[in-house]
Design goal:
586 residues; mainly beta; five-stranded mixed β-sheet; four-stranded antiparallel β-sheet
Length: 586
């Protein structure tokens, strides 16, 4: 582990922070033997802590979102099979992947789904996965059966990772399940084939509950490897019943054991090798949820951040020799500044303050305060939730998926969160989504109420993905909600702001260009940064293309690309309001 003399580990360590439902239902405490705090709960931010954002004026959003899913003929809902009995896995259902599965240049939408419990089967179409083909202009067609993605052979599914693991130009899918995981190869003819058997990903231990995955090339050999976040060992047969005065509740995570997350090396022949132990991933155990990928210290190698539920978060720093060092303590992202563990859910990483370094955000349950960590030039992270306003704005929401998204193309990455409580109890159980507007990197303002009624339905929102679904240059949103039809929110794109999307294609490196970094310098001298990674939020994969909002800038001075292998490419005088497709020089 590297030495960070400036970092002082939190003095207050809480052995068990708020439970999934414990903040609303104190009786949950009795369910976990020995569940005690070593210190009082962390105090709410003081007035002075939020003073920097309390003076920020209200912001009226300049765009709106409209749900076009109501005009699409498809029967999919995120079916967690809730019939009164509360199985531990049920709150997590409805993963999303935005992919161009047929190569026509339009982003299609894939959804994972649950299964019948306790039977673990999918007896009818209400439990099927779903693939919607993008027909353009906000129209979609259900092609699930034609594409062979009904997923009838799977157990209860959670997240989905999208990536071209065989470098053939077509996006493949990895689906994380409570039972055996699944790898689907895109056949290039509009169909998918389950190729899990013999891939090495079929060697998963029995009852290991996998929440999500992410493809990235950790060793720069040009092939996408796979990291998988796991939660515990669980099956309906060992599910615990947790009663309370208000009735049965979903059990606190502490009743189930923590497990290591796993790393799988792509061998290049359709097989993956489990390198969890040799890479160092196996040295720590957690309850994994969202995965965020970036080169956090600027050494040219992609690192891995995993948000853990009621456990310290993990930051696996890539050593460049096939191994990782878990350094969440040294970098200051294991806990919040009070030393508290929380119910970490989804996570995303991007440069919200435009200083050239990827920052980290993750959400959690209401009253726990969502976390925003500012990257201090690759040396450590600073917890800035209080002074940025995130602590105050997030207090009453339970967040699941999320994303840094420049929803209005002003050049500053805002923060979206899909919200809803774990359980179906309490006055604030059903919640609407939130959009926190980035005010020039100074702080955030809640603009959710101004984004239109389709942005605000109450429910138990779970997965989310970001991408430009109708090619107008503005990012759109796809969101799942338990036992409801997903929302496909198109951006009104009518504020006159300019934009650039960058579509990178690797040749010597991985074809998806995962890990590539792009710096855009506008005509007025503004510098904007982004990097390629589709793993964003919770259980979901977003648009692989890089988005840059340009605001009023009408010209681009330069676009600088650093490819995963380390080579650089400089483009001058790029036009605005276009998708820039660039192949890596050979």
């Amino acid at each position: 582990m590297r030495d960070h003399p400036r970092y002082v580990a939190p003095a207050v360590l809480l052995l068990a922070a708020a439970a999934w439902t414990g903040l609303l239902h104190p009786s949950v405490e009795a369910q976990v033997p020995g569940r005690q705090r070593t210190a009082p709960p962390p105090p709410l931010p003081s007035a002075s802590a939020s003073a920097s954002t309390s003076r920020l004026p209200p912001v009226e959003p300049s765009v709106r979102f409209t749900d076009v899913a109501r005009d699409v003929e498809f029967g999919y809902t995120s079916n967690n099979h809730f019939t009164g009995r509360k199985y531990f896995a049920q709150p997590m259902c409805g993963g999303i992947a935005l992919i161009d599965y047929d190569g026509d240049g339009k982003l299609d939408i894939y959804f994972t789904n649950g299964s019948r419990l306790p039977e673990y089967d999918r007896p009818d179409a209400s439990f099927h996965g779903c693939l919607l083909r993008n027909l353009g202009e906000g129209r979609f067609q259900d092609v699930t059966e034609k594409a062979k993605l009904t997923n009838v052979d799977l157990s209860f599914s959670f997240g989905v990772a999208a990536g071209d693991y065989d470098n053939d130009g077509d996006p493949d899918l990895f689906v994380a399940n409570a039972g055996p995981n699944a790898l689907y190869r895109n056949e290039g003819n509009g169909t998918y084939r389950n190729v899990t058997a013999g891939s090495g990903l079929d060697e998963k231990p029995k009852d290991l509950l996998s929440v999500g995955g992410a493809f990235f090339d950790y060793d720069k050999d040009g092939l996408l490897d796979l990291v998988v976040s796991h939660y515990t060992y669980w099956s309906p047969a060992v599910d615990r019943v947790c009663p309370s005065q208000a009735g049965e509740i979903y059990c606190y995570p502490g009743v189930y054991e923590s497990v290591p997350h796993t790393l799988h090396h792509n061998l290049g022949n359709g097989r993956f090798e489990d390198v969890t132990v040799s890479s160092g991933f196996g040295q720590v155990k957690g309850k994994g949820m969202g995965i965020a990928l970036a080169d956090y210290d600027g050494n040219g190698w992609m690192d891995v951040f995993v948000a853990n539920d009621t456990e310290p978060n993990f930051l696996y720093m890539n050593q460049g020799d096939g191994t990782f060092s878990e350094e969440s303590w040294a970098f200051g992202v294991a806990y919040d500044e009070q030393g508290a563990v929380v119910s970490g859910m989804g996570t995303d990483t991007a440069d919200y303050d435009n200083d050239g370094w990827p920052d980290i955000f993750y959400n959690n349950l209401q009253s726990q305060l969502w976390a925003l960590f500012q990257n201090e030039q690759g040396q450590r992270f600073r917890y800035v939730s209080p002074r940025s306003g995130i602590a105050r704005l997030s207090r009453r929401f339970s967040g699941w998926s999320n994303a840094f998204i420049d929803y209005d193309n002003d050049g500053w990455k805002d923060i979206y969160s899909s919200n809803g409580d774990v359980d179906y109890m309490g006055a604030n159980a059903e919640q609407h989504d939130t959009m926190f507007h980035n005010v020039e990197g100074k702080g955030f303002v809640d603009v959710s109420e101004g984004l239109g009624p389709d942005f605000l339905p109450l429910g138990y929102q779970r997965g989310s993905a970001v991408g430009d679904l109708n090619d107008d240059g503005f990012p759109d949103l796809v969101i799942t909600s338990l036992n409801k039809t997903p929302r496909i929110l198109l951006n009104s794109a009518d504020n006159g702001h300019h934009w650039l999307w960058v579509d990178l294609v690797g040749t010597t490196g991985n074809r998806d260009a995962i890990g590539a970094k792009v710096k855009v310098t506008t005509g007025t001298g503004r510098t904007l940064h982004n990097h390629v990674s589709v793993s964003r939020g919770f259980m979901s994969s977003s648009d692989r293309r890089l988005h840059f909002g340009l605001g009023g800038d009408t010209s681009i001075r330069s676009v600088e690309i650093t490819w995963p292998g380390g080579s650089t490419q400089l483009l001058d005088k790029v036009q605005v309001d276009r998708v820039l497709r660039i192949e890596e020089p050979k």
